[in-house]
Protein: Chromosomal replication initiator protein DnaA
Amino acid sequence: QWGMLQGNLLKAVGKNNYSSWIEPLDFDDVRDGVATFNVPTTFLGNYVKQNFGDQILYQMMGMGLNVSRVHFTVPVGQSPAVSNPVEGAAAAEGAFVEVAPQKREAPFAAAPLDSKFTFANFVVGKPNELAHAAAKRVAEGGPVTFNPLFLYGGVGLGKTHLMHAIAWELQTSRPDLNVVYLSAEQFMYRFVQALRDRKMMDFKELFRSVDVLMVDDVQFIAGKDSTQEEFFHTFNALVDQRKQIIISADRAPGEIKDLEERIKSRLQCGLVVDLHPTDYELRLGILQSKVEVQQAQYPELSLEAGVLEFLAHRISTNVRVLEGALTRLFAFASLVGRPITLELVQDCLADVLRNSERKISVEEIQRKVSEHYNIRLSDMIGPKRVRTYARPRQVAMYLCKQLTSRSLPEIGRCFGGRDHTTIMYGVRKIEDMRAQDGQLAEDIEILRRILEA
Ligand code: ADP
Ligand code: MG
Structure:
């Protein structure tokens, strides 16, 4: 059977992949639904698990084997240093090879779970507290109260992290449950493969026997008609059986284009929660928690006070970028043998800092200022010259000059086609008044903080 599996894998992954990654595997046995393969090195095992684990599992299931998980192990007595001198030597130096953390065994998952994506490693703040609470609730594995749980939010805000955390937690709280996590793309891939191999019965059976189904990045199936159709049936079958479903997407259900109406409305039936963009406090909290990991890895590096605050302030895009910046900073400091200072940050992260500068728009400023002074946006932009409108208008002009890179004529155009001299006058006026008028100075400070958050 190993021979047959090898043949199928060769077809599925192609010759190059096969000879690099599959050929070195040595099939051991299948016990209790776990197929074990011997691999020469941990690195190879991890790589194969990440990249081909799904495929191997799929092929074995296709051969009628009762397998729900694949496992790769380095046989005892076969030290990586012997079988792979390069990897062994680097590991001995402890420098560039990340020492693989003890991988926790994933529950039956169509996709491998990241062992770092746990609740313990998830920093909770205002922007994500609701999503976190909902995820926690589902992870208790109690009776289904809302179905589905729909998590949405921009890239890098922790959707995948939360879903993996649910899967890990359920493994402890409800080991009896069959939990499946996969991306919508993988769902489609499996579906298409089942169609091609005439294995639709197996496919349906597999997904309908799940207790908790998590589908990540569901926006991926938008516009893919037959996959949507199948997803809809799977979804309904599971909801009817009162099985928990957890879905994520990069936007709210109603805003996913090319998604069938009936699916949209189904997705809205449960609890829809969004992950808001991070705020400064959350970013700082995340950095503080991640910096511990880095410091454990590079104990010799000193970290100047204020660096984390600076990063939290300046990198306001997504958490993944924030994490990447931190990793790079430590690696860079270690390479050049310098302490981590603000100056080093500028040297090492110039590109990241440039790209993640948040662009504040004129429209945003106008909106916030009108809200702050409780006047209508149209009045602020319009021609009325009474003080109630003129002062906020000038404040907005001033902030546009300060916080955006727009030129005076451009700003003028956004203020109902005013001349650039009018804008300049407004900006000067506020500059002068600010020095004497404490209330005005305070208003501007508040607005600046709101806009820069
Ligand atoms: P998404 O799926 O929403 O695009 P991810 O879940 O992949 O985002 O998160 C991106 C990275 O940021 C991951 O490494 C994740 O661990 C980290 N991350 C996001 N939010 C948090 C958080 N609140 N606490 C700790 N790490 C986080
Ligand atoms: Mg994700």
Q: What stands out?
A: The chain is about 55% helix and 10% strand. Residues 117, 121-123, 128, 153, 155-161, 286, 319-320, 323 surround adenosine-5'-diphosphate (ligand 1) (CB under 6 Å). Residues 42-62 form the longest helix (21 residues). The chain has four domains: 2-93, 126-275, 280-355, 362-452.
